[in-house]
Design brief:
The protein is mainly beta and about 425 residues long. It is elongated. It folds into two domains: about 280 residues, TolB, C-terminal domain (Neuraminidase, 6 Propeller), CATH 2.120.10; about 130 residues, Lipocalin (Beta Barrel). Strands 26-27-28-29-30-31-32-33-34-35 form a ten-stranded antiparallel beta barrel. Strands 1, 2, 23, 24 and 25 form a five-stranded antiparallel β-sheet that branches. Strands 3-4-5-6 form a four-stranded antiparallel β-sheet, with no helix packed on it. It starts with a helix and ends with a strand. It contains one helix and 35 strands.
Amino acid sequence: MKKHLFNALALLPLFLVAQPNTDVFLFDLNTKNGTFELSNMKNISENEGYDNQPSFLDNNTILYAGSRNGQTDIVKYNINYDSKIFINHTDGGEYSPLKIPNQNAVSAIRLDPDGKQFLYKYSLKNGEHEVLVNDVIIGYHVWYNPSIIVSSVLEDGGLSLYTNDIKSNKSYLQQKTIGRSLHNIPNSDLVSYISKEDNNVWEIKSLNPNSGITKAIAATIDKAEDMCWLPNGTIVMGKDDIIYTYTPNKSVDWVEVASLKSYNIKNITRLAVSPDGKKMAIVGESITKEGPIDPNKKLEPKLENIAWISGTWHGEAFGGIVEEIWSEPSGGSMMASFKLINEGKISFYEIEIIREVENSLILQLKHFNNDLKGWETKDETVDFPLIEITANKVTFEGMIFEKVNDKEMNVYVDLHDKDGSVETVKFTYTKK
């Protein structure tokens, strides 16, 4: 017991000291046809303090460790209803919550005020809890099957890789000097972990918990600690504000696929993907800016400065319902689809792009009838050259995007009549 208490006290800084003010950000994820697109960001924790270690209970529910009353407890967040509840009420702090296979319960690391640190089980029905593992000091874990977990155990001043049999309450050492990131590898009977045996080059490896066999998969991004797997077998890692991917047996090196700079997110740590691969939870820190933002200050003509336009927008115009869906910046452009519905029928469509050209931006679009017959000729486009960008406004020649807040946007479009007169039409949008 003295050794356990000493080890638990040694782990205190990981959980209680100098914790960053982190949040859990939820994104829509599109990986069709080899793409990697993040959109519709939402800060689901939006809380002062340490909110971290997300995992998906199912496609519609996220678990994470959230700060409350000076300690960290288990939060269950419902995506459809944008609601969250704390599922436990204990004197200790809970960390790294995970769904227990085939049970209406979750497991989590609990650090009690007296320094004891054990793996606990918590009922999702009533919050009742019981100890699952108490023979080793588990820092992080992943369920291999309903009776076996793979864990990072604190010992000798670092983390070691163990398999833990819940039924027999026995633990087996697999490797010394590893990281905290543990995951089931899709479409396999293996678990991934990060080996730190070579301090200069950290390596992602696989473990077969049944045989104890380990194999190298890939070197990590330089000293990156956290990762996750997409359902298709691609690895995702984050560093600073950049997201990278690597596909074993296909990729030559890590590929930069997204930047969170436009979302004012830095220092990416934990990552989690929904079972269907359509949602991604990312932990990071919000970038705070000193002093008031000058709304009239001109910004550089870069897509990252107008990324707030991205998302699904709905509103009313021309006596009907309008929908406009803008992608995130990628490949030097943003793309949108627009449609107008009157009396339940499509009046017309638009395809829009904003692209980089000659150190500036240009908005171009084409119109289509409800049968996709084009208004413009084959090579003809309606062009709106950029005039200027400010913090809350993008002004093109003939069209203006105005940010009201994160959920509201106005678009002003100049319509030219045959007699030479110009009418400005206002579209009032709400983000869905």
